[in-house]
Amino acid sequence: MKKRIPIRLLSVLIVFLFSCGKKDVVNNTPNEPPTNTLQQLEPYNFVLGTHAISGSYQFTTENKLVEQAKKVREMGSNILKITLGKNSADIYGINEVTKSTTTLALFTNNLPYKTVCNMDFKYIFFWVHTLTNVDWKKTLTAAEEKVLYDEMFNFVSHLLTTYDNSGKTFLIGNWEGDWLLIPNYDRTVTPAPELLSNMSKWFQIRQKAIDDAKLASTAKNVSVYHYIEANLVLKGMNGEPCVAESVIPNVDIDLISYSSYEAIKDKTFAAKKSDLQAIFTYLESKLKPKAGLPFSRRVFIGEYGYQANASKPETFQKQYDETKEIMRISFELNLPFALHWQMYNNEYENGVSKQMSLINESGSKTRQYGLHNNFYKAMNTYLKDEKQKNNKYPTADEYRTKALQVLSSL
């Protein structure tokens, strides 16, 4: 005769087995929370953002680009800037058996790019040059012009189709344009007239391809814009040949990005603000009129940041204060974006870090990370409350006023 298990004992056994199974599920939960478990961000332009360009270090087994994008999102930002340049696969640890020969191929053949663009970032900036074998620095043939045009047209068409009705805005531009004209970062060099002419042609082709792709598309609620980035604008203000003075006036560009280091180092707050205002006014004078652009101004800070020295602790306070000053100036000058360099540090000299990251090489979040994080949390709450109270978001002026109040309190 078989022995029966008492009902009470059977109940205990079932509970025990269930809780063991539940424990296994918990232990198998990834350490990185999926994006959709994070605080929902309001679909509004927070203005302040950062880059995810570096591949110098990482802390998970995920792809380097995906890891950094998640860190940007966890910080509370809905703005992301990444590279789609020829070396981007190497930077992000993507193993391309066969190297992509167009920007579209790079984007569609490699999951990390699609993964981060499918996250809930509202504004996504791309560094895009060309993955073809066409060299714009040389005189372009008609066939080469078509190669460059088709590469950009096809990529933008794909973005518009893929992200139709997503609410996303993509901004396509170049890395610091003046360094593309000058060897060895020697700012005293004057670019050759033919090189300036070739760059103008290259940007004209890109802008036309983007404009044509937008005209041909039926996609709604998704936007793509083109910007040119300059970094030696002071030369142009002195009448010297450079991107700002000699290239931008020749292109029907959407926006101008300014990599701002020449204007923000070793200056008081008042001097920085005055110089940046003069620079942006000058840059705006070089723009051709263009209707239908949704931005407060067509100029923005594409890069800013400050170094610190681990052997000099006082430099970290100065770094924090000056970072906060640029944030404040960006709102006071009504800029549409100001992008900090960057989430993970990529700059070392003789093994010494320049300490410009929001998360450093040891995995520690810097004070600048906390500054961004606290700003995003405060502004997201403000936007949510305003939407609930008034059934609409605040105006850009109202948002800017609140942002300055929040920054002054941090």
| Main β-sheet, spatial strand arrangement | 1-8-7-6-5-4-3-2
* Unreliable residue stretches: 1-36
User: How would a crystallographer describe the biggest sheet?
Assistant: 8 strands, parallel
Helical stretch tally: 15
Got a strand count?
Answer: 10
Task: Write up this protein.
With 410 residues, this protein is α/β, with parallel strands linked by helices. It is 46% helix and 11% strand. The strands form two sheets. Strands 1-8-7-6-5-4-3-2 form an eight-stranded parallel beta sheet. β7, α13 (314-332) and β8 form a beta-alpha-beta unit. α2 (64-75) runs parallel beside α5 (111-117), α6 (142-162) crosses α8 (193-216) and α14 (367-390) packs across α15 (396-409). It is globular and about 55 Å long. The N and C termini lie far apart (76 Å). Mean pLDDT is 91; it is low at 1-36.
Question: What is this structure's SSE topology?
Answer:
Blueprint: H1 7-27, E1 48-50, H2 64-75, E2 79-83, H3 88-91, H4 103-109, H5 111-117, E3 123-127, H6 142-162, E4 169-173, H7 177-181, H8 193-216, E5 223-230, H9 233-237, H10 243-246, E6 255-259, H11 261-264, H12 269-285, E7 299-304, H13 314-332, E8 338-340, E9 348-349, E10 352-353, H14 367-390, H15 396-409
Parallel strand pairs: 1-8, 2-3, 3-4, 4-5, 5-6, 6-7, 7-8
Antiparallel strand pairs: 9-10
Helix pairs in contact: 2-5, 6-8, 13-15, 14-15
